[in-house]
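Holo prediction. Input below; ligand is magnesium ion.
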Amino acid sequence: MKINNKYKVTPIIGLQWGDEGKGKGVARIASTLSKNDLIVRFQGGNNAGHTIYHKSKCYVFHLIPSAVFGKALMHMGAGMVVDPAALLREAKAIPKSVSFLKRLSISPHTVLTMPTHLILDSISEKNKGSKKIGSTGKGISPAYSDLTARKALRVGDIFYNDFEEKYVALREEHRKVLCEQFDYEISKREVKEFDKKFFSGVRFVKSLRVVESAKIVEEVFGRKHKVIAEGAQGTLLDIRFGHYPYVTSSHTIASGVGTGLGIPPVLVGETIGVLKAYTTKVGEGPFPTELGGKKSAIWCRDKKLIDEKIFYANPNPNSKNEFEQGVALRRAGSEIGATTGRLRRTGWLDIPLVKYAIDINNSTKAILTKLDVLDGFKEIKVCVAYKINGKVVHEIPFNLSRVNIKPVYKSFLGWKGKLHSYGKKLPKQALDYIKYLEKTLGVQIIYVGNGPEEHHVVERFW
Ligand code: GDP
Ligand code: IMO
Ligand code: MG
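Structure of the complex:
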């Protein structure tokens, strides 16, 4: 495959609110790489859920890069927060026949997520009531908070004799906060169980190659090979440039590659953006193109898939009821959280939002995913602008939650039958949609996803 970024890291970044299909895109690109190339994660933790199908079997990666089934080296970068117990679980779920451990390394700067971070995350979310963010409960915000408070434990610390002592001190500090602020007690038995799992995970981390992220990047560039950075979450979830406070706690954008790996910005090349053919979001926060508006947000917060199936056995994609159309999108796209099992909120593609993401990431190429999910929709809508207080605007406002926003839509005709059945020759209506996106967004769409499995891809431009 052609990547122009010779000796620059190529970021692969979600252009929406996460779950765009980054895992499948990364796995596809990884399948073209050699054993001297490198795939890195540079931020986030196991709040990420990256799904891939390999030989028709489904795998979800949370911490390990989505390149296990390829040949390339894999690295968990300095900007990540890693729960050692979760990492060990994830590694154990990979078939024994796949040799990946020798290819996997981690930075000494990577922050260790502790069991008490997970409890702090869940309990503080619960206490926020209607102001909750809808976090994944994986301890992400407390772990990054400890980093900025300059007391986090990092991978490099595990090699010192006082590691256990430091762990116990921080664990006890967390327990005190839980007790005093939230009236929440962790029993001695629970503490023992947590510690056991944490330290098994730590022993696993010790067995990996521990290397500075910048050093491994330099080694790979020194051998004149490629480095791909697998983004987690999406641009609109970036801690600073997302829809704050409905965001995660790390820099999800291409600039995060620099600080997440400790490499100069000049080494970060053009981004490959991952773009879903419509929009989804998990958790709370504004979502201008959400089908069914507030009703959908509440429904997805309170209901499970099993409840939804009782109300909507066969949702109609062409229903006059927008909420039902949203349900149809969710079902056709299996839009259920890969990490938490929550219903993902669904809506039409939002061009101003994606343009913002493309600009911020310097995305020149894009992977368009899940176009097949629009099979059966006679009309496909795209939000091209917003109406705010009667005025048409083409840019997303600073604070989406504080304005009364109405999407302005443009319609496209759907295609007949299943996209997949057209093979590599996409139907005219799908091509019209793709070409419109390329022109409006100023990117080249290099892959189009027409199903969840690894071979469900239409390659364009090479
Ligand atoms: P990520 O977090 O960005 O890696 O995305 P997720 O794995 O959380 O969610 C994407 C979902 O869409 C997964 O269930 C994938 O298997 C699925 N998927 C990816 N690409 C396609 C596609 O082109 N078509 C369909 N139908 N499903 C896809
Ligand atoms: P991938 O990599 C979608 C969302 C959560 C919540 C907010 C904060 O699979 O695309 P956190 O646990 O990070 O403190 O939650 O961010 N969120 C994601 N949404 N995909 C993800 O990752 C996400 N990771 C976090 O739902 O709204
Ligand atoms: Mg995901």
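The mean pLDDT is 95. That is the main takeaway for now.
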